[in-house]
């Protein structure tokens, strides 16, 4: 109906997480902004334990790699059973996201894309790796940076946090606006200060105390651009400074 098009979503985002460590998510999901978003029904997070989908009663989910080598590899069957079962828990088809250091590097543009979906399923890899065939379950593989974690859980938490803060009503109107103006411009934030005006010889820049809002806005824009050039020339669309 014409008057319903504004939001583009008639149910809150649902995020399913498949993990060997569901308990690791509890604290993160209860904390401040995420906790409030969940309590207010702005997002739904459903945790599934991969071990519950093992073929044997002992809950075996990993095995030795064919061809030899160190460590254990996540087996196909539990992963396929888990993803297929969880997919069926809701009529909306979830975008299946595999967390792996070999995935696409997560960016704010991808976070915006994910925040616009109806349903996500985050699958956390573990052990030394997973059977290559598990990749066929994924619509998308994501990494949160060029370093190696012992498992995908901290990466899944980072994805959840970054996505949920973009959902309607999760942050105040001011923060939502700053996401638009600054992150869309692709710049780092400008420096911020609060009381006291002077602390251990470090003074708050005069312009911020001036009450001249046009001048303050100009100073902040200059600072954001300068900071981005110095620290992240890649974001400013310039060659990085010599180290
Ligand atoms: Cl998604 N998983 C693991 N194990 N390590 C990572 C990662 C993911 N992203 C960066 N490092």
Spell out the key features of this protein.
Alpha/beta knot; 33% helix; binds 6-chloroguanine; alpha/beta; 10 strands; Trp Operon Repressor, Chain A; 3-stranded mixed β-sheet; 2 domains
Q: Helical segment tally?
A: 7
Enumerate the distinct ligands. 6-chloroguanine
Poorly predicted sequence stretches spanning 5 or more consecutive residues: none
What is the number of independent domains? 2
CATH topology of the largest domain: Alpha/beta knot
Task: Provide the spatial order of strands within the biggest beta sheet.
Answer: 2-1-6-5-8
What's the total count of β strands? Answer: 10
CATH architecture of the largest domain, by name, is 3-Layer(aba) Sandwich
User: Main β-sheet, in a few words?
Assistant: 5 strands, parallel
Give the termini distance in whole angstroms. Answer: 57 Å
Description:
The chain is of the alpha/beta class. It folds into two domains: 13-164, SPOUT methyltransferase, trefoil knot domain (Alpha/beta knot); 180-243, Orthogonal Bundle (Trp Operon Repressor, Chain A), CATH 1.10.1270.20. 33% of the residues lie in helices and 19% in strands. The protein has helices spanning 23-30, 32-39, 76-87, 108-115, 153-164, 173-185, 213-231; strands at 13-19, 43-49, 62-63, 73-74, 95-105, 119-124, 129-130, 140-143, 198-199, 202-203. The strands form three sheets. Strands 2-1-6-5-8 form a five-stranded parallel β-sheet, with helices on both faces. A three-stranded mixed β-sheet has the order 3-4-7. The protein has a two-stranded antiparallel sheet with strand order 9-10. α4 packs across α5. The mean pLDDT is 92. The chain binds 6-chloroguanine. Residues 99-101, 125, 143-145, 147-149, 151-152, 155 line the site of 6-chloroguanine. 6-chloroguanine (6GU) binds at residues 99-101, 125, 143-145, 147-149, 151-152, 155.
């Amino acid at each position: 109906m014409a008057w319903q098009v504004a939001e583009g979503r008639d149910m809150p985002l649902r995020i399913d997480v498949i993990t060997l460590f569901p308990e690791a998510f509890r604290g993160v999901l209860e904390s401040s902004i995420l906790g409030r978003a969940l309590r207010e029904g702005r997002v739904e997070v459903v945790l599934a334990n991969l071990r519950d989908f093992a073929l044997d009663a002992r809950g075996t989910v990993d095995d030795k790699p064919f061809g030899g080598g160190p460590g254990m590899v996540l087996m196909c069957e539990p992963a396929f059973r888990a993803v297929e079962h969880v997919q069926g828990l809701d009529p909306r088809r979830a975008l299946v996201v595999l967390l792996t250091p070999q995935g696409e590097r997560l960016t704010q543009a991808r976070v915006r894309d994910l925040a616009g979906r109806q349903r996500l399923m985050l699958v956390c890899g573990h052990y030394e790796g997973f059977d290559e065939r598990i990749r066929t379950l994924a619509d998308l593989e994501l990494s949160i940076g060029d370093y190696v974690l012992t498992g995908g859980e901290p990466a899944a938490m980072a994805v959840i946090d970054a996505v949920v803060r973009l959902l309607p009503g999760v942050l105040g109107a001011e923060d939502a606006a700053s996401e638009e103006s600054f992150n869309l411009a692709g710049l780092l934030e400008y420096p911020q200060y609060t009381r006291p005006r002077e602390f251990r010889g470090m003074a708050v820049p005069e312009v911020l105390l001036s009450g001249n809002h046009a001048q303050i806005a100009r100073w902040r824009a200059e600072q954001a651009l300068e900071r981005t050039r110095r620290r992240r020339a890649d974001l400013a669309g310039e060659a990085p400074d010599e180290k």
